[in-house]
């Protein structure tokens, strides 16, 4: 294959792992990163564009390829305001997706969140659900939505709440059975692996993967 991948959020916990998969893959001859800051990784197939996310439309000609991987996301705490959170977790991904669809990008792969629901009373979960709904409406050839539980991995920043949740759920994960299995913590590398594998299948339609399903994707 001679595919081109596009990634936003390539410096994050899942995005950085996904980038490694893509650079090592013989299925991709070009990997395009759109980021706020230049990424200090050198590879013959890697192209990194430093962009202003508030001017996404200005870079529409860069958004061409086969598989668009959206690993962008923040937290309400880090964003400081609801407005900033929505900008990063809803506005930006949707703008990129709309341009990708216009530019005939074949597949869109999105990291969402466990429990994503546009009708939820939880603002974080509601926003994730609203984004999912909008992405589905674009009708890419393949729309792949990944809903991880608490992510395990080494972050560049320390998140106390998430670390406590990770430790607690890891200790008692054996109690999470049946429908509760999807709440078990998942390695960020496994999420990245699931995204990469599903992008290679050539499937048409809309697919949603919960954490427990991603754990078993090989």
Could you explain how this protein is built, in words?
Helices cover 36% and strands 20% of the residues. With 218 residues, it is α/β, with parallel strands linked by helices. It has a single domain (3-214), classed as Rossmann fold (3-Layer(aba) Sandwich). The chain has a 7-stranded parallel β-sheet with strand order 3-2-1-4-5-6-9, with helices on both faces. Strands 7-8 form a two-stranded parallel ribbon. Helix 1 packs across helix 6. The two termini are 20 Å apart. The model has no long low-confidence stretch (mean pLDDT 89).
Write the layout of secondary structure elements.
Blueprint lengths: L2 E6 L4 H12 L3 E8 L10 E5 L16 E4 L5 H4 L2 H21 L4 E5 L11 H14 L5 E6 L3 E2 L7 H12 L14 E2 H12 L5 E6 H4 L4
Parallel strand pairs: 1-2, 1-4, 2-3, 4-5, 5-6, 6-9, 7-8
Helix pairs in contact: 1-6, 3-4
